[in-house]
Write a sequence for this structure.
C-alpha cells in the first residue's frame, strides 16, 4: 500500500443556501481542485458523499452529474451513501483507490441540500436510517435516540445539563472564528439555561436535550483532493498525510446493544485508526468529533480514547477541550455550530483538520498542530469512520 | 402489520433477539422460531421527543427502551405520566403511527 496525501481542500459556507446541490458540490470541488493546483494532471476518480439527494432533491446518480459539471471525463465516479458517515466513507474509498494504485488523483466531495424540504420532512428523512420495524414506526427520530442516550448517560455518569450547555457554548464560540460555520451566535449559560426566558429560547427537543444541544439543519458541500504521497512531494506541496483510517459497525436498533451508553463502533474505529497511524490518543493535537448532539461530543471523546469512560465531561469542565486547552475538540464549531449537511459533514471535518495542520485556520488555529483526529458517526453509532492525519515537514 | 410484535428465538442456542436477524447474534445459527414480545419489564431510558417525523399531530411523543424480564429489550411508546428509569411497566399493543389511512400497530408500555 502506498502513502496517500491530501493536497487540496475547500468547502462552501454552511447554512441555508439558494444554490442547488450540484452548484454547492461544484463550488467546493472547484475550490479543492484549485487549491491542489494539479496543472494538466487528470482526476482519475471522483467519490461523492451524499445521503438524501434522491429523496430531498429528487436527483439520483449525482456522481456522474458532478463529473459532467466539472468536465472531469472520463474519470471513474460513484456516490457513497452511508448515512451521516457518508463523508468519511467516501474519503476512505478515495484513500483506498490511491493507496492501491487504482487511481493517482482522486476528488472526494460531500454535499447535502436539506433545506429544500420542511423540518418535518427532513426529520423524517434522517429518521429513516433507524430500524424500520423496531424503531421508526414508533416515531423514533435521531433527536429521540439522542435524548434516550443522554438520559441514561447523565443518570450513570453525573453529566448535567450544564455540561451539555458547555459543549454548545464552546462550539458556538469556536464557530465565531470560522467564516464557513452555519451558526454565528454567542451564547451564555445564563441565556440558554438559567434565565427566565431560557425555556422559551432553548425549548426541549428530546428531553433532556434542548434546542442548543442539537445541530442545525444545513446546506453545504466540502471537498478534498488526494494523491500519492510521492507525487505530492514532487509537486513541492505542504503535505498532509493520511496516517490512520478505521471503520466499524454496531447494531441497527440501539436497544440491542449490551450497554446502550457504549458507542462500541467509535471505540473500535478509533483503535483501528490509531493502530494504523502508530499513535496513541495522547499524541493527537486536535479532534473533530461528530457532535450532532452535545452529549455525543462528550461520549465520543471517551470512546475515542482521549478520556476515561465517564470523565469526558470533567475534561470539558476543566477547559481541556477548549480552543486554548490541551486537546481542542471541534475548533471548527463542530456539527453543532459549523452545521450538519449530512453527506458533507465527514468531508468538512477533514477539511478542518487539513487547514489546522497547514496552519491556515485563522483565528481558531491550534498552534503547532501535527497530528489530528476526526470521528464521523453514522446512524446512531452503527457505522463510524475514524481518521488520523499528520503534517509532514 | 399483524397486531402483535415478534422477535426470534434461535433453535440452536435459545437466544432471543428483537428485531429479527437472519443470523443469530449469539451462535451464528440460522434456524429460528418466532416469539411474541410481551410481558413485564423495566424502563431502561425514555424521552419526550418534540422533533417528530411525518404522520404525527401531537406536540410530543414519549418513547422508551424497556428491558423485559426475559432480558429482551424493545423500543416503543411509553404511556405513563410519571416515567422513571427502572420503573416497572408492561407491554400492550396499540396504534403507534397512522400514515394516511394506514394504522400501524406496535408496542406501547403502561405502568404495571
Amino acid at each position: 500500500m502506498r502513502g496517500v496525501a491530501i493536497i487540496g481542500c475547500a468547502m462552501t459556507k454552511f447554512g441555508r443556501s439558494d444554490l442547488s446541490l450540484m452548484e454547492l458540490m461544484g463550488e467546493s470541488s472547484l475550490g479543492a481542485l484549485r487549491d491542489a493546483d494539479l496543472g494538466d494532471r487528470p482526476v482519475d476518480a471522483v467519490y461523492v458523499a451524499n445521503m438524501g439527494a434522491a429523496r430531498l432533491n429528487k436527483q439520483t446518480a449525482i456522481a456522474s452529474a458532478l463529473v459532467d459539471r466539472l468536465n472531469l471525463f472520463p474519470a471513474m465516479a460513484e456516490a457513497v451513501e452511508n448515512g451521516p458517515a457518508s463523508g468519511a466513507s467516501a474519503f476512505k474509498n478515495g484513500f483506498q483507490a490511491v493507496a492501491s494504485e487504482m487511481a493517482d488523483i482522486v476528488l472526494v466531495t460531500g454535499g447535502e441540500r436539506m433545506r429544500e424540504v420542511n423540518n418535518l420532512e427532513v426529520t423524517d428523512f434522517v429518521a429513516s436510517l433507524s430500524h424500520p420495524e423496531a424503531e421508526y414506526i414508533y416515531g423514533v427520530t435521531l433527536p429521540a435516540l439522542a435524548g434516550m442516550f443522554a438520559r441514561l448517560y447523565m443518570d450513570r455518569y453525573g453529566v448535567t445539563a450544564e455540561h451539555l450547555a458547555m459543549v454548545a457554548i464552546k462550539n458556538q464560540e469556536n464557530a465565531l472564528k470560522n467564516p464557513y460555520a452555519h451558526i454565528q451566535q454567542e451564547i451564555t449559560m445564563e441565556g440558554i439555561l438559567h434565565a427566565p426566558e431560557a425555556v422559551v429560547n432553548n425549548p426541549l427537543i428530546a428531553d433532556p436535550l434542548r434546542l442548543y444541544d442539537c445541530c442545525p439543519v444545513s446546506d453545504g458541500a466540502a471537498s478534498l483532493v488526494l494523491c500519492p504521497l510521492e507525487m505530492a512531494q514532487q509537486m513541492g506541496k505542504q503535505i498532509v498525510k493520511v496516517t490512520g483510517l478505521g471503520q466499524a459497525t454496531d447494531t441497527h436498533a440501539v436497544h440491542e446493544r449490551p450497554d446502550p451508553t457504549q458507542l462500541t463502533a467509535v471505540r473500535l474505529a478509533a483503535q483501528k485508526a490509531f493502530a494504523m497511524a502508530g499513535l496513541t490518543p495522547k499524541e493527537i493535537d486536535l479532534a473533530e468529533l461528530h457532535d450532532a448532539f452535545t452529549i455525543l461530543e462528550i461520549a465520543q471523546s471517551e470512546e475515542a480514547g482521549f478520556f476515561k469512560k465517564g470523565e469526558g465531561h470533567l475534561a470539558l469542565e476543566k477547559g481541556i477541550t477548549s480552543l486554548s486547552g490541551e486537546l481542542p475538540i471541534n475548533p471548527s464549531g463542530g456539527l453543532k455550530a459549523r452545521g450538519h449537511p449530512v453527506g458533507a459533514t465527514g468531508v468538512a471535518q477533514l477539511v478542518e483538520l487539513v487547514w489546522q495542520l497547514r496552519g491556515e485556520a485563522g483565528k481558531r488555529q491550534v498552534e503547532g498542530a501535527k497530528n489530528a483526529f476526526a470521528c464521523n458517526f453514522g446512524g446512531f453509532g452503527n457505522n463510524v469512520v475514524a481518521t488520523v492525519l499528520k503534517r509532514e515537514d | 402489520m399483524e397486531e402483535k410484535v415478534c422477535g426470534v428465538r434461535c433453535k440452536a442456542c435459545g437466544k432471543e433477539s428483537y428485531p429479527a436477524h437472519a443470523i443469530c447474534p449469539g451462535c451464528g445459527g440460522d434456524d429460528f422460531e418466532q416469539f411474541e414480545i410481551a410481558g413485564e419489564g423495566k424502563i431502561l431510558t425514555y424521552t419526550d421527543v418534540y422533533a417528530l417525523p411525518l404522520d404525527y399531530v401531537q406536540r410530543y411523543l414519549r418513547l422508551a427502551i424497556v428491558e423485559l424480564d426475559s432480558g429482551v429489550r424493545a423500543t416503543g411508546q411509553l404511556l405513563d405520566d410519571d416515567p422513571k428509569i427502572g420503573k416497572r411497566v408492561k407491554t400492550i399493543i396499540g396504534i403507534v403511527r397512522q400514515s394516511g389511512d394506514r394504522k400501524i400497530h406496535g408496542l406501547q408500555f403502561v405502568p404495571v
Q: What stands out?
A: The CA atoms of residues 131 and 253 of chain A lie 6 Å apart.
